[in-house]
Amino acid sequence: MGLPLHSRIRQKIKNALNALLALFFPSHAKHETIPTESIRRILVIRINYRIGNILFTTPLLRALEHRFPYAKIDVLIGAKYPSSLLKSSAVENVFDLPRRLLKNPLHLYRYIQQLRATEYDLVLNLNSGSASDRGAAFLARGIYKLGFDVPGNWTPLTHVVNPPSGSVHEALKPLLLMQAFGNNANDFPQKMDIALSQEEKNQGLEELKKRLSLQGYTWGSKEKIIGIFRDARFEKKIENSWWKEWYLHMKQLNPNALFVDILSPDVKEKLEDDFYTLMESNLRLLGSILSQMDAFICGDTGPMHLASASGVPTLALFKASAPTLYGTLGLNDRSLSLQGFTPEMIATQITQHLQSLPPASQGSLD
Fold this sequence. Notes:
Layout: H1 5-24, E1 41-45, H2 51-55, H3 58-67, E2 72-77, E3 91-96, H4 105-115, E4 119-125, H5 131-139, E5 141-148, E6 159-161, H6 198-213, E7 224-229, H7 240-253, E8 257-262, E9 276-278, H8 283-290, E10 295-299, H9 302-310, E11 314-318, H10 323-326, E12 334-337, H11 343-356
Helix pairs in contact: 6-8, 7-11, 8-9
């Protein structure tokens, strides 16, 4: 079935507007190496409103931090709530672009003034297909502006690199922009990372101990602490009946494991009576808590990417989307397709993987 009529009309208007803007603002960008000696202030643009897509910027942010150790980085995203996930010693400001601004011209004008208040040495547009990202890169002040070389680009980029020619994970695509500085994408870690400090990890351990103890758990009495998250968007969501059958086999295969149900506004009740529960709206604190578990199991959803970026071994269960584009990337992570596999078979695969992992770094057993 094709797109609905209103979507097709919107797409035609978008294409016509892009063609018009490309006519008035033709790109003269170069496929050349950007001089890096004077780069001290960087703006990264990825206007999006979903946790996963925001976390997909972290491999590039860590690469920029490594390549420009004395630079300060600002990031422009869509929603405010995941902004704490991008903060680090090098990321100074995370700006958000609320959707409501588009309905208030005066507030939008003031926002544009704020955006243009800083002159950056380098502006990076991570998604050349996004009109909002193009517009922000157009308005931002920068000596060098870098993005992907795509047809009809009307952003006044100074430098471009070729987009990927094949299937590349969405979190690794932005790393290709590092070619503009004489690097290859594989010169940098191929994983998501929210750069938790040791202090944050220690805080996560203390929070985990406190919250489980309040539910009657004696710390260290179980061999492994395994978190699960059952929610996901639309067809990616796995039914509770599947989770219940899966848990019966997991409990038999892992009798010394403690299972923690991560609750949310859409998942308010724990799966089984013997589950422990945890709810936390502060995403960075949640990441620090997850980092102290032995494993995290969930469907294709934002918390899956948060867990992987926090460093906990993450097992992602894919029901509809493609793991090659949206799967986990950590060394101890695994992306498993549910197609053709029973809950018992998935439980067996997960157990075998858990048995191969080293003990949790912060010591879940002490």
